């Protein structure tokens, strides 16, 4: 895996602790001599930052409009950041990707997982991660960890977040070779070790 790019996505509910793990894996990969590009969705491009503000902190959006904004963010992100990085052999680590939309808009907003998956696949031109790490926590723990400041998605009722969590787990169960599920209540060191071990198995580390 030294002469071609590798694409890793971290997924999970709000407050799962993904961002810490994104940082940890990036450090481990860099220490192993890989070029690493860390990014996040929504965001990660100039357009993405504007869309992020709109969708997380703006006014009302209908569920379909919301799904399209998240899809537009990803379309821009793939062409501007992810594809060029993979093409020069970097490891791209993204904090959220298409599965977030399938879980949040498809299952949480009940737009239909398959329809949202199709929309997302179109937006990203079919580019899927080599490995998706789902950092799993129950919504109550996630809420507690986040504290009091909720954005548009975070302020949804617990039932929404339960549906999101169940959908992440169902996707991972269906394709174990493309996913790693880690318990988000384990220590950051333990979680980082599990991710590290999987990347060794995959030949990336
Ligand atoms: P962010 O602040 O990045 O949250 P976190 O630190 O938990 O990743 O907020 C992103 C929010 O947007 C999060 O609630 C998940 C949601 N989201 C979607 O609903 N659909 C998507 O396609 C993406 C990428 C994120």
Share of residues in strands: 5-15%
| String of helices and strands | EHEHHEHHEHHEH
Helical amount = 40-55%
Largest sheet: 5 strands, parallel
Contiguous runs where pLDDT drops below 50 for at least 5 residues: none
* Major sheet strand order: 2-3-1-4-5
Number of helical runs?
8
Q: Provide the list of bound ligands, each named once.
A: thymidine-5'-diphosphate
Span from first to last CA? 9 Å
Write down the Rg: 16 Å
Overall pLDDT, averaged?
96
Broad structural category = alpha/beta
Estimate the global geometry from the Cα principal axes. Answer: globular
Number of strands: 5
Verbal overview:
The chain has 205 residues and is α/β, with parallel strands linked by helices. The radius of gyration is 16 Å and the shape is globular. The relative contact order is 0.21. It is built from eight helices and five strands. The protein has a five-stranded parallel beta sheet with strand order 2-3-1-4-5, sandwiched between helices. The longest helix is centred in the middle third of the chain and has 25 residues, at 63-87. Thymidine-5'-diphosphate binds at residues 14, 18-19, 40-42, 56, 70, 95-96, 100-101, 104-105, 153-154.
